[in-house]
Amino acid sequence: MSSLGPERLERLAAEYGTPLYVYDLDELRAAYADLSGALPTGSHLFYSLKANPHPPLVRELLDLGARAEVCSPSELDTALDSGADASACLYTGPAKTETELDHALARGVGLFSVDSPTDLARLGRCARRAGTAAKAILRLNPADYPRGAGLAMGGAPSQFGADVAWVREQPDRFRADGVELVGYHVYAGTNIDDVERLATWFEVALDAVRQAQEALRLRLEIIDLGGGFGHPYARPGTRPPWPGLAGRITEALGGFGGPPPVVAFESGRYLVCGCGALVVRVQDVKTSQGTRFVIADGGINALGGMQGLRRVPPIMAEALPAPGANGAGGSGAASRTVLAGPLCTALDLLNQRAELPGVRPGDLLVIPNVGAYGLTASLVAFLGRTAPAEVSVDARGVRSALRLDLRYGELPAARPDGGLTGDRGDRAEMR
Ligand SMILES: *Cc1c(COP(=O)(O)O)cnc(C)c1O
């Protein structure tokens, strides 16, 4: 966290309240420069809004040259409202509905990733109805992904994409009126921090593309190799470098014949994880049957909702000394602590085995590297507490301060026949 020293965080917490997400835009810019610089020249780099749809971050990444990879109507609208060129957006997801495809086509999305013959045919129907021709890439599930890094999303039975063997056995099912398939999409894993392993994954992905292309013989415009660029999450650490990666990919791309396709990559985590920190304030410290509990004003409603799904390792909160009346905060040797949040459930634990120094009520704790999969990957609506403020800063000062607002909205009245009047009513408004 480059420009975010304890005093600055203390000031921001006092001004905006806690829990508080702080995003350092200088750090975001540096991460974008590092990743785009590690890819072959001319590559497209998509920002996956799933990692963090916070509009100021999206706007910044678009300004830097990223494209938007979205998988919901709300992510698409955020990207477009943040200045994305619709024709450069990629729309993905394994269960796209006609309603969302209609919306995406109406807004001018230029490229879809399709996951199956059903998905492809549905896109074709929607495009014909809209009087346009859609462009799509076919998501492949490779047969043989190397195991053992991050979350595998390939090389195993998967709801994502189509098995390469299926494509080879029934190539005719992978065509549809209204859609032109112009390439392939492979996204098979996430959070890989080793360049050798990542390069190997891309090589295997390209093998899968080669095998599918033998059967489909598309006019190959684009190969989206996905990503998997790792980053430490909710613990101290810095983004890994990718020495030699561009060369490895360029080499593996040889031999496709025809005009060389554009190569695309996607990243959420690597681009935004390091720029964000969550600041919480200690509300209580007590000992229960020999175990010390530190209870903060933000818990799994602000961070780590996905931890409950056992998909992320324990969160590590770093204690930050607080000046003023609680000046002794953060002092003394670290000791074993359960770090709990404010929710009325025993599940609201940010870390069951934290090592924290002596802290007192009023002290701040800072959890680093949570710019990705932070707030929107958490149980924001559970117990209905106000969402944390989100502030983005850079060397020039505070650049934006926003708060996510979740509340109920009235649906159009139901007609006696069970239909809905007016709007089709199947698009919940979340703002
Ligand atoms: C989740 C996802 C990403 C982003 O993954 P990161 O690990 O955040 O980089 C990119 N592409 C697809 C298709 C995804 O599902």
TrEMBL record:
Keyword Secreted: no
Cofactor entry: pyridoxal 5'-phosphate
Keyword tags: Pyridoxal phosphate
Residues of the Orn/DAP/Arg decarboxylase 2 C-terminal domain: 21-371
Keyword Lipoprotein: no
Coiled coil: none
Domain of life: Bacteria
One Pfam match: Orn_Arg_deC_N
Residues in Orn/DAP/Arg decarboxylase 2 N-terminal domain copies: 26-272
Classification via InterPro entries: Ala_racemase/Decarboxylase_C, De-COase2_C, De-COase2_CS, De-COase2_N, Orn/DAP/Arg_de-COase, Orn_de-COase, PLP-binding_barrel
UniProt xrefs under PANTHER family: DIAMINOPIMELATE DECARBOXYLASE, GROUP IV DECARBOXYLASE
Similarity annotation: Belongs to the Orn/Lys/Arg decarboxylase class-II family.
Identification of the protein by name: Type III PLP-dependent enzyme
Taxonomic classification: Bacteria, Bacillati, Actinomycetota, Actinomycetes, Streptosporangiales
